[in-house]
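Record format v2
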Amino acid sequence: MSPILEIQDLSVAYRTPGGDVRAVEHVDLTLNAGEVVGLCGESGSGKSTLAYGATRLLRPPALVTSGKVLYGGCRVTSGGHPVDLLTMSHRELKSMRWREIAIVFQSAMNALNPVLRVQDQLLDAVQSHLRLPRGEARDKVATLLDLVGIPRGRLRAYPHELSGGMRQRVMIAMALAADPEVVLMDEPTTALDVVVQRDILAQIVELKETLGFAILFITHDLSLLLELADRIAVMYAGRLLETGTAHAIMREPAHPYTRGLLNSFPSLHGPRRELAGIPGSPPDLRDPLPGCPFVPRCAHAIDVCTSVAMSLAPVPGIPGVVSHLTACPIVTPEVSQEGVLS
Amino acid sequence: MRAVANVWRNLPLKAKIGVWLFGFFVLAAIIGPEVAPYDPSYANPDPALLQAHPSAQHLLGTTQTGQDVLSQLLVGIRMTMELALLVGVIATALSVIVGVTSAFLGGVWDEVLSLLSNVFLVIPALPLLILLLGYLPGKGQLSTILVLSFLGWPWGARVIRAQTLMIRNRDFVAAARESGEKSWRIIALDIIPNEISLIAASFVNTVLYAIGASVALAFVGLSDLNTWSLGTILYWAQSQQALQLGAWWWFAPPGLAVALIGTSLVLLNTGIDELGSPRLRASRGAAKIAGHRIWPTDPTPVYAQLTASRSRVGAFLHSFSRGSLLDETPAGGEL
C-alpha cells in the first residue's frame, strides 16, 4: 500500500495574546490508499486541529508552525512526486479541495443550508467541482443518494424534512460528490443513536470498499474505532501517544493512557469488572511541560517520563507487528535511552 | 470597574472615537450655559462688533446684531442635546412596549399593533411635523419633543418585534413558561435582556433622528425662536444672509456641531453592534500573525512561509512590533 496522505512533524498553534497554544505538536501520521485510520482522543486533545490544520482549513489565529503534509493522489502527481499541502497557494488548495480531499463535517444539522433543497445543495457540490452538463449532474446527484441509501423521492426534500441519520448520509454523499481520494470524517456519527450509527458506519465501510478512498476518521469513541479502523492513532494534549493496528491496540495497548481509555468502557465478553476512568483533566497547552504530557495523570510515571522526547518507537515484545508504536518510556526502553534530552 | 475597562479595551477604534466625541458634546451640554462668556441674546450695540471676525474677545465672532456666536453655540448644544435625548428615551420606550407586546401576545394584538406601526411608518414625517407644529398652540420645546417622539417609534418597534418573535420561540422562554412564570417576568427577565444591544442601537438611531428633525424644524422657523438651539442659530444665520455676507463663523460652527454629533452617534452605533455580537468583530477583521495580515477566508498560514516571504524592509519593520516577541519562540520549535 502506498501512502496517499503523509503528515510529517506537523505542529499547529493558536496564537493568542497570552502566548501560543500548542494544539498539535510534532505529529507524524500516514494514511495509505484505501485505508481507514482512526484518530482518537478526548475533547481538546487536538484531533480536529490536526485534521483541519493539515488541510489548512483553520481560521486565524491558527498557525502551522512546522512540518509537511504530503499528498500523493494520482490525479495531482503526474511525475509520482507527492505534493506538499503546506506550500500550496490559495488557488492550488482550492482545486485540491473536495476533488482530492473531502470532509464530512461534525454536525449535519449545521452544515446543510436549511433553505435549500437537498438536491440543489448536492448539485452545487457536483457542479462546482466537476463541471458536468446539467443533465449529467442531476444523474450524478441521484446516484450519490442511491450510494448512501436515500430514496430518490427525497431529492426535493429540505434538510428539516430529513431525520438526523439521513442528513448525515446526505453529508457523506456530498463528500463523495467529486470522487475524492481522501475523506476526512470529523465525528460524523456523534449526534446519532447507536443503531443509526451502526448503519452509517457499515455504509461507510461498504462505500470505501467499492470506491476505494482512504478515510481519516476522527472520534472520541475508541470502541467504535476498534471495529471500524485499520489503524488507530491515540492523541493526547496535541501529541500522538501511540499508533498501531486496531488489533494490536485492542490486544496489547502499550501506553498507560490507551490502557486507561480501553478500561473506561465495558467489554461484551468475559467477566464483569469495575470500570476505571482516568482521573484528572488534560494539561494547559499554553505552557507544555517537557516530556510526556500524560505524566500528571499517569499511575506508572517514573522520573525519565518528564524528560523523554515524545517520538514514537516500536513496542518490544510484539514480534511481527511493526506498525505498533508508542512514545511511552516505560514500555519502550529505547525511547528513554536514546531520546532523553541531554 | 475592571469589567468596564475590559469592555473599553475590546471596543473597536471607531466606537472609541464615537464615545469621545459624544462625551465631549454631553459635557458641552452640561457645562456650556454656565461657561458661556456672554448672554447669547445680548446684542452689543458697539458698531465695531456687528458681524465681527473671531477675536480674543469673541472667539467665534459675532452675529449681525452683535451677539456672541460662541455663547449661542454653548447654550444651543444644551437645548438640542436635551431635546434629542428626551425624544430618544420616550420613542425607544414606546417602541419597546409596542414591539415586545405585539410579538409576545401575538394574535389580534399583534395584528392591530403591527398595523398601527406600519401606518406610522408610511406617514411622511417631515410634512406632518410641519403641519402639527404649525397648528399646535405653543411652538416650544415640549411640543417638539412630543411630536417627534410620537412619530419616531415605529422603526424601532418593528425591529424589536422581529427579534422578540425569534426569542419567544427559544427553549429557555418555553422553559420559563412551563415553570409557571408570569408573562411580565418572562418579558422583563428573559426577553428584554436578550435585546439590550438592539434597544441601545434603536435608542442611538432615534437620538440621531431627533437631532436631524429638530434642527430641520428650527431651520424652517417651526420652533420657539426666542430660545437658542443649534437649529435656531442656523435659522437666524440663514435669514440674515450670513452665507451671502461671508460670515462663515456664524453658520459653520453650529453646522459642524450637528454633523459631529451625528457622526459620533453613528460611530457609537457600530460599537454597540459589535459589542452585542462578538462574532461580528471576530469574523470581519484580519488577524496579524508574524507580521502578515491573515483573513478568515485565507488558508491556514504556515510559519516557515510567512517568514520566508517577508521582504528585508518588512522584516526590519516587523522586528519593532509587539508581535515579533512571539516569533522568537515559534510554537513547535524545540523547548
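Chain A touches chain B at residues 11-13, 15, 19-22, 25-26, 52-53, 56-67, 86-88, 90, 93, 288, 290 (CB under 8 Å).
Residues 336-342 of chain A have pLDDT under 50 and may be disordered.
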